[in-house]
Amino acid sequence: MAKPVPRPTPTEQPFYDACAAGKLVLQRCQTCGHTLFYPRTHCDACQSDQLVWEDASGAGIIASYTVVRRGVSADFEAPYVIALIDLAEGPRMMSQIIDADPDALAVGLSVKVDFAAWSEDITLPVFRLHPALDVGDA
Amino acid sequence: MSAPGLGGEFALIGMAESAVGIVPDKSPRELCVQVTLDALKDAGLTLAEVDGLITCNAFAEPIMYHAEAVAEYIGWQPRHCVTVNTGGGTTFMALNMAAAAIQAGMAETIVVAMADSLRSFMTRDQAMVVQSSSGHPHYEQPYGPTVPAYYALIARAHMNQFGTTEAQFAEAAVSCRAWASQHPRAQMRDLISVEDVMNSRAIADPLKVLDCSLVSDGGAAVVITRKDRAKDGPHKPVTLLGYGEGHSYEHISQAKDLTTSAAVQSGRAAYAEAGLTPDDIDLLQLYDCFTPALLMQIEDLGFCGKGEGGAWLASGISRPGGSKPMNTHGGMLSYCHPGNPGAMFGLTEAITQMRGDAGERQLPNMRTTLCHAQGGIMSSHATIILGVED
């Protein structure tokens, strides 16, 4: 058994192509201006199919997180951190926060995207704490 | 806005439970057959007098046409026969579909039966299917979330927003266990304290193993018919007074609000149809898959203000002797949790209490019960309100 790996549909492929190139991209609706995630054929705000890919900043804040102490399978070595990240562009994304001291985590802290290979073909966005973005935010 | 008006017209006239907990001697299909026949016997009916069957599938023994397979097993050809799948919310959605089917003339009397054997009959592959049954295959599962981890995300958000504490979540488990200690068939009966929960094995912070529901075998069934046909049975009929649904998303990463669920909508619709308020409810039978889910339902169903669920639980109000008894069978945290059928036992306990048959744990002056079930990660909600006449 191995970690679950996405098998992108043609609609989703640009997202994974960008990840492989070290870039985070999101769809933006040309009809209503909404930025969305996960990738779709239709906008989840206005149902338009006029969606275009745009570069995202890769910055976000922690909406919630958990330190998983008992992994889902042998392929995931516990502990690891699962988080919901509110991206600067608006959408929320589930991801892992890597290389973080669990005691240093808190809701509201800033994170920045990084990328990690999940298989030969698939690279996924992960996040790291980014204290520089929190400075002056208090 | 009121629900479409099935409330008050339908009654539960029979019920049955299998043995629960660790039940290795019967397959899920056999448990489902057993509770179907036992519920009919309880209602004083024969198969020939019943013309509908609604079931849900079993993770440990999936069958393409599950309800038909159960009927075939006992040589029955019901006029109406359907398998429902809305996760943990299946129980009450199936009950409402049964009422709607009777209303539409598709059947006159329907058995709703469910069973699964997550404890004794799961293969390793099937266990993985259960683990990944929630979770987006491309945008959640690759990161390795567990089912407790999803609820841990909700718990952390609630703690951050309202100051809820881990000890307050633990109070939910303590309350359910206190009731289970009075139930002779409960899977876990030894009393526990908040400290026991806090010191139990860490699963996904802030949740510990005693914040998580059990893994069990078991099945249960109920018989529903039109109220005017329910008078001649051996037991006091229990009337379906109100029903409501709420559906907000499938995947937790798509939730617009992590700390308020669509139980608000399902509860509001059920109260409106029943013409009742939270103050009128004598017994709460809620969906305690994980302690934070229970705490949020208490708030979202209006038993306290938003953010006050922790204090409500810590007050002891839901424990034996308290003024708002909750999950008097012990819930899925302590009675049993065989997967999708889990909320059936909240329902059978409600019927038992309303008939006055609950023995040591019988509540006085039982008139109304609110039962709630949810599927997914607080995704899909169904609320029913039951009443009984003196």
Characterization of this structure:
The complex is a heterodimer of chains A (138) and B (390). Chain A has 138 residues and is mainly beta. Chain A has 2 helices and 8 strands. Chain A has helices at 13-20, 131-134, and strands at 25-29, 35-36, 51-55, 59-68, 80-87, 92-97, 110-117, 123-129. The termini of chain A are far apart. Chain B is α/β, with parallel strands linked by helices and 390 residues long. Chain B has 12 helices and 11 strands. Chain B has helices spanning 28-43, 66-73, 90-103, 124-131, 147-162, 166-180, 194-199, 263-274, 291-300, 309-314, 331-334, 344-355, and strands spanning 10-17, 52-55, 80-83, 109-117, 202-204, 207-208, 217-226, 238-247, 283-285, 368-375, 380-387. In chain B, the strands form 2 sheets. A 9-stranded mixed beta sheet of chain B has the order 3-2-4-7-1-8-11-10-9, sandwiched between helices. Chain B has a two-stranded antiparallel ribbon with strand order 5-6. In chain B, helix 1 crosses helix 2 (66-73) and helix 6 crosses helix 9. Chains A and B meet through strand 4, strand 5 and strand 6 of A and helix 5 and strand 5 of B.
